[in-house]
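Input record, target 12 of the design panel.
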């Protein structure tokens, strides 16, 4: 039995693993990816110690640091959690079950889907959820970014350097992205922003060819010819595997206190999967450290 199982290997999970291991605890990470959402950041300018670094480069440094410790890693997906003999059992999709005295949930979030006809059919055939990962494949093409928040405009800022034209499609009446992102797009000659616009359908044959949109004021339906669509309408907490073991807020984030404790003794949580405000890499890392120290204290005190 491990002392701590950490579910998720983003900044929160990796930081928690380092802190817990330095406390001489037996730690196991369960995650089907390394880096989480941080991996998708095109550029990070607010992580102390780096004036500028890409998300991918920062994740590599995190991973190198983590691997210098004796941390067991399972590259699988957690599918369930249950209680057993005062501890917990985590089931996975490929490697069976693992037991631990405590859990740290740092599973982050996954992209929200549009839920329109054609989205599933054209996934990985023109429909994408990561401009950093997939943007270069659309060089010289017309593309659409669905979402007018920071993630949508960050994607658009990347894509105007690659694509022939970038349409930014926002459902609401106004853009909610930070001014710095909006300024970049205003200055781009190959960008067009459409507000009050709803995506109704994704069209194509083998690959995406267009999106059907509705003007929410007039009700007019039109098609925008594009070869790629980047969905940037927010993220959903990855909590399905918890089976209701811990309390969630109304948007399904795990509710924690200032010590990263959940409603279930022995289960701690950190990072973007929680109700902590401001989803930032540096905040997630700090929360991961807190969760590890709280789990250590819980173990030392015998589960009190």
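The sequence produced for target 12 reads:
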């Amino acid at each position: 039995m491990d002392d701590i199982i950490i579910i998720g290997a983003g900044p929160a999970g990796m930081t928690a693993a380092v802190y817990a291991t330095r406390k001489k605890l037996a730690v196991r990470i369960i995650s089907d990816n390394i880096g989480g959402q941080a991996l998708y950041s095109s550029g990070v300018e607010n992580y102390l110690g780096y004036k500028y670094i890409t998300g991918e480069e920062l994740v590599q440094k995190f991973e190198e640091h983590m691997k210098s410790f004796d941390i067991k890693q399972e590259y699988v997906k957690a599918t369930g959690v249950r209680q057993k003999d005062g501890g917990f059992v985590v089931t996975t999709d490929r490697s069976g079950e693992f037991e631990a005295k405590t859990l740290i949930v740092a599973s982050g979030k996954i992209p929200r889907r549009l839920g329109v006809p054609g989205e599933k059919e054209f996934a990985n055939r023109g429909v994408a959820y990561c401009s950093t990962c997939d943007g270069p494949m659309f060089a010289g093409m017309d593309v659409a970014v669905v979402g007018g928040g920071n993630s949508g405009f960050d994607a658009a800022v990347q894509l105007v350097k690659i694509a022939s034209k970038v349409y930014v499609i926002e459902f609401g009446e106004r853009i909610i992205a930070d001014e710095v992102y909006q300024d970049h797009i205003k200055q781009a000659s190959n960008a067009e922003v459409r507000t009050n616009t709803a995506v109704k359908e994704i069209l194509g044959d083998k690959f995406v060819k267009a999106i059907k949109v509705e003007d929410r004021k007039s009700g007019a339906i039109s098609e925008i010819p594009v070869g790629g669509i980047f969905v940037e309408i927010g993220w959903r907490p990855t909590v399905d595997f918890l089976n209701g073991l811990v309390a969630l807020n109304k948007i399904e984030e795990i509710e924690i206190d200032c010590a990263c404790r959940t409603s279930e003794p022995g289960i701690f949580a950190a990072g973007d999967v929680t109700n902590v405000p401001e989803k930032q890499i540096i905040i997630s890392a700090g929360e991961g450290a807190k969760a590890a120290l709280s789990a250590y204290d819980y173990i030392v005190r015998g589960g009190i």
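DSSP finds six helices and 17 strands in the chain.
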